[in-house]
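Quick question: what would this complex look like in 3D?
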Amino acid sequence: MKRIALVALALLAALVLVACGGAGPATPAASGLPADAAAVAQARGLTADDVYAAMKTYTPSGKLDPYIMIASGGQSGQVLVVGLPSMRILKVIGVFTPEPWQGYGFGGSGDAILAGGKVNGKEVLWGDTHHPSISETNGTYDGQFAFINDKANARLAVIDLRDFSTKQIIKNPNAINDHGGAFVTPNTEYVIEGPQYAAPLGWQYAPLDQYKEKYVGLVTLWKFDRLKGRVDPSQSFQIELPPYWQDLCDAGKGPSDGWFFCNSFNSELAVGGVELGQPPFEAGTTKNDTDYLHIFNWKKAAEVFQAGKAEKINGMAVIRLKTAIAEGLLYFSPEPKSPHGSDVTPGGEFIVVGGKLDPHVTIYSFDKIMAAIKAGELGKDQYGVPVIPLNQAMEAQVELGLGPLHTVFDDKGYAYTSLFLDSAVARWSLGGPYANKHPEKAWSLVQKLPVQYNIGHIAALEGDTATPGGQYVVALNKWSIDRFANIGPLLPQNFQLVDISKGGDQMKVLYDMPVGMAEPHYAQIIKAERLKPFEVYPEIGWNAETMSKDPNATLKQEDAKVVRTGNTVEIWMTVIRSHYVPEQVKVKKGDHVIWHLTSLERARDATHGFALSGYNINLSIEPGKTETIEFVADQAGTYSYFCTEFCSALHLEMLGYFLVEP
Amino acid sequence: MKRIALVALALLAALVLVACGGAGPATPAASGLPADAAAVAQARGLTADDVYAAMKTYTPSGKLDPYIMIASGGQSGQVLVVGLPSMRILKVIGVFTPEPWQGYGFGGSGDAILAGGKVNGKEVLWGDTHHPSISETNGTYDGQFAFINDKANARLAVIDLRDFSTKQIIKNPNAINDHGGAFVTPNTEYVIEGPQYAAPLGWQYAPLDQYKEKYVGLVTLWKFDRLKGRVDPSQSFQIELPPYWQDLCDAGKGPSDGWFFCNSFNSELAVGGVELGQPPFEAGTTKNDTDYLHIFNWKKAAEVFQAGKAEKINGMAVIRLKTAIAEGLLYFSPEPKSPHGSDVTPGGEFIVVGGKLDPHVTIYSFDKIMAAIKAGELGKDQYGVPVIPLNQAMEAQVELGLGPLHTVFDDKGYAYTSLFLDSAVARWSLGGPYANKHPEKAWSLVQKLPVQYNIGHIAALEGDTATPGGQYVVALNKWSIDRFANIGPLLPQNFQLVDISKGGDQMKVLYDMPVGMAEPHYAQIIKAERLKPFEVYPEIGWNAETMSKDPNATLKQEDAKVVRTGNTVEIWMTVIRSHYVPEQVKVKKGDHVIWHLTSLERARDATHGFALSGYNINLSIEPGKTETIEFVADQAGTYSYFCTEFCSALHLEMLGYFLVEP
């Protein structure tokens, strides 16, 4: 009897363990839901899936996110830095739009950077950022720089990931808008800026009835000088294209290194005019069943540029279309229908193109493209560009659903494509060298996961590099409708974190993240361990624009001074908890004021601000930074300057008086 | 034998239930941790507390946050809208700083609102927002409006909570900075804007050696016209004060309705000048053991203003200090040491003041203040203001720890004070009518909860109203140091969600939320159910600035047109998925262009953008909205305008050409 009871006991004890998924009742989470949490889950109506999702996204107080997403901010003009899996915004980087919290564009060094983005001499203080790109070494993110384009004005910005701040904005001298930027070549030799809506070169005037002859497409290869951390326009060049609307691009890697690929639309040469009885753009540009995948040999293009075969237009080297054709830099292949996206597989073997009005993605083989070019029996488009027939270039097509836009990859041989019209993420299986990584048939749809709603781009963990990860994809949804509390007619976007760690049809939505300050288009996700940001600036007196010691640094409080020369007053000021030196600055009305501020702080997070009342001036002075402002004291009166970053218990007392004598 | 085995089985079955906190293994969260979640918790090293916190903060995909926090954005110049308990940012409202995602200040209606904030005729396109205030009815949030001040330039903004957008910015004509704003009276009769650093009236020039005679403090009572949704300067007035630095204010309610209270510092009249061998401000302003709590009778002040006893200075009515004293509007009472915060208990009986350099909060009794005023045996400060001795006004002092700043309340008779130097939230028990709500001794410290790090303000669920809730407080921490992945020398702030639902010493930190685009000072948290925002604008052709039908609305696509009058070209355009009408706009160089755009959309979230390449123009056109832009086409060429909000599968095709003939 005893023996049987003991066996029963042992069996049931085992059952307890199985039932609870681990050890006894009072132990932490891994072995059973704590009583507090059980009560909360019940009270809040959480399902088992919710609990799972909560666990998977939760980053405990003080623990660091292992992945960092760098997302465009769309028409906010900025770039968002988001931690994963917590989906928390760590920073909104000021890029094309001034942002005073970080002191960007309000009197300090950001002013000169923003001035680089003038259009026709006019300040354009916003941008439509689209596609961020992290610098790469051997096709893998190296965590040093990020690049982003401004679709609205054809501009490119360089962000230094040592301090996650913008260092350069450059205006494309020959285009007025772009879309397919920024994309880097595998060793960041070039940053590719594709165009969008065709225009005459340098956006000169030409009527629309001269569209076919005078309007052009244009792709720009910006040479990146990694040592200087700047794009070098003198070593950059452009390639003239037919006035199709080149859209998204991706660089080859591995076997396809040296090439890049852009999708395009409007081979119809539509010019709109619904008010004139013509088809609206949305109809006119989608009439044809195919447009052209653009296939570029950038290594040969660089040689052509170096050989002086480019024309200078508005100071920029342009390889004209006829030269590009003659030199064999440019090939086309048809792509169905209303194409979007051009994404190269991790090993560089294939290019995936979506078709907004086609239920398939089309997969092109780089080998087949090369073979067709070598065979040389190609047709031509209306501008004389050689065209590789689709059946000669295509490896496969996979039917996914409605509105396939953009594709990323994982480490399990799967691809993930956003389906805008289906509001879904499609997981599908790759073929070729990837076929043995997954159990499914090659080139087949594996799962369609509904997302909420209208997904645009999709981002995966290093999912556009040679070495993708396999934990998460993020659905960058454009509409949120009913997903968040109502705060009026302008709704946030909805980023959804999707767990892709299990194969087959086991993708799950884990989390909804509203984005209520930006409309990100694309994002890249990097392992945090690849980043090596400064904790504080390397030394006292650091100029964050030049990333070197500032000649106007004030290294000791005793060296602070005010010097008048004629009607110029120059101030060398120190900043440390909790006072400025000097605390009284007296000038006369009309004086020209040059003011250098140096933080003497070395403690992490000991940032000070500097606001000057009545002026459009606010600085963020992180530990060690030197900033310079310059203005005319054009109004007599009593003003104050004060610290805008809550630095200490006596932060409110950190101020000075700026007295302007009449 | 069988019987015993069955008993053992039954007992163990019960044990399983207890061990798992409910039913069997495969059921949802409330009854046991799902296997997926258990594995994740173990893999991610989550403790039982982490699991609890994750459950408590998680808002499942598609469920709505029940609470909305409206937080200042500090030197970003904006206001943040955050859902609780998920701590997700739902919107960053453009207030003092232009923000293109929401089309604020880039050619549309926001331009005129921002122009209201000019200082000395100069555009100041940022602000240092400090204290948001939701409109109240009977001392409880009514969810209609929010107000926020700009410390850097003494400005006030009005936000309409029907569309969560800014409607008015007004410049204080007699002050150059403020701090203690915005605070509303219990029925939003007035919005109180307290000052900060003293200056001559209208910030005229006066040297610092005339500080005592010429510098003043100044509090402003902005009359709010609820029907118009605007502050009415003609019905507003100011009260001149001694040049102490008035800081934070709060309005009385219930028995103390009609009064308001501001703390102050710098009764020392320090003027800084460390470079001249004088004590720095941080020392000079903290020399005295006490400063003055300012006690205002605003109902009487309104009568004095109505009776014409105010002087007009720069167009604004000012009750001079001598009048305020003579009319019995203003009293002082000492407050220890380096005071910060002035917070009225939910029932209006007490005022709580923190002292940054005093370990106590000091609680003043409104009844005792009234009795002392009635008794009339008061001293005077150096400017003649009657002073109520501290021992006559004080109800209690509670020792909390280092750096008490600001206090909010709950529904359980507790107060919560932020301790900056201790980096802690102090929960303490109220006395008087609150003493029977909690088991603790009245006026005693109950718990000190560490937070990370350096908490400034603190916000509780409706915790500064007559009807506070009891679920959460949010610690608005100023430093985050090591709490988030490193993204360079400028670190985010850290909002921590604290569970206060259980009494006694059971407060818990649930969540860390980085704030990487703003440095919020104060926040208010409202129940979402009190808000009644529009889902779409009420009708096609809505002007969001005037909140009424726009005379330039275009109600049907057929009515779209372009009309030239001399060198003015006026365009009436319609906007709907996925085209603009017209799609071709032709002007001549130098033409003056007036462009009206009306969204014909009625579907929620069907927002369009409108960017004009090469111009500083971007609009957000929510369903039903009409916007107008105006500019000179000063450069010939070919430009495009396009939709910046990803609206549909053919969003990229939503564009037009803007042709400027030479």
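Answer marked as accepted. The longest helix of chain B spans residues 2-20.
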